Amino acid sequence: MFDFAGKKAFITGGTRGIGLAIAAKMARAGADVAVNYLRNRAAADEARAVLLDASGGKEPLLLKGNVSKDEDIEKMFSEISDKWGRLDYLVSNAASGVLKPSKELTHHHWQWTLDINAYALLALARHAIPMMKGTDGKGTGKIVAVSSLGSIRAFNNYAAVGASKGALESLVRHLAIEYASQGINVNAVSASVVDTDALKHFPNREVMLQESLHWMPAKKLVTPEDVANAVQIMCSDLTNMVHGHTFIVDGGLSIFLPG
Ligand SMILES: NC(=O)c1ccc[n+]([C@@H]2O[C@H](COP(=O)([O-])OP(=O)(O)OC[C@H]3O[C@@H](n4cnc5c(N)ncnc54)[C@H](OP(=O)(O)O)[C@@H]3O)[C@@H](O)[C@H]2O)c1
Questions:
Q1: What is the pLDDT of residue 135?
Q2: Domain assignments of the chain as residue spans, ordered by start
Q3: Centroid of ligand 1 to alpha carbon of 95 (angstroms)
Q4: Is the pTM of this model over 0.90?
């Protein structure tokens, strides 16, 4: 449906789960893709095969680095700059976080979670925006952050991650107004529970999946593909006048009041 031929896209955490679905969709639409991962090289190699297939044989750029570390971000952007010299889309998707009741959360847990889930966008955007200049010197880029319903709703064991996603969505709004006049759109796509590897870290995974499905007005879970569709819309020209918005993909869950 979308034509991103010749466009350059960088998707953090693009080797697994939702990030890989986003990268594959961008590659299928013709974009050159760079995907980042932290340490799982086997998954990165599998992602490479998926992306080669999706793009019809175009080699993706695989970038290893921690999105919460300035020096790693600098190195990854230097590789992107050497390879492409510019960037059209940044999807800040990689996330982590400590899942514990609030009384067990330490300052270290908080810092770790906020750094990866919120600070990363600030640091990534700082490098991406100067690479989004068009030929007229004005920007033409799209930045999309991937968030979750924990930013506006509360879940067991999710205090640190939920707070980090709240910070992320606020940062999206602030970046959006800062860069709107340069022709750069900054938005978020938020989702309810998606059955990816990330859920293996939740102590209450099975209950979360069952309860989400039970309360979902759409009566089915959101898939990585559903989230990737929304990211693609946010990267397209259809949303050129959408700035600082959080596009919620949740089958109606967050607006549903049972009763
Ligand atoms: N799954 C859900 O229910 C759900 C719901 C709503 C929103 N989301 C959001 O969707 C996004 C993707 O989630 P997912 O479920 O697809 O995750 P996932 O399957 O756990 O994949 C995470 C990806 O991020 C990378 N990563 C993790 N920490 C990183 C770091 N510090 N620096 C660089 N890369 C890092 C991982 O690399 P390695 O493979 O090397 O570890 C992997 O590629 C996240 O922002 C998440 O909050 C998820």
A1: 56
A2: 8-249
A3: 4
A4: yes
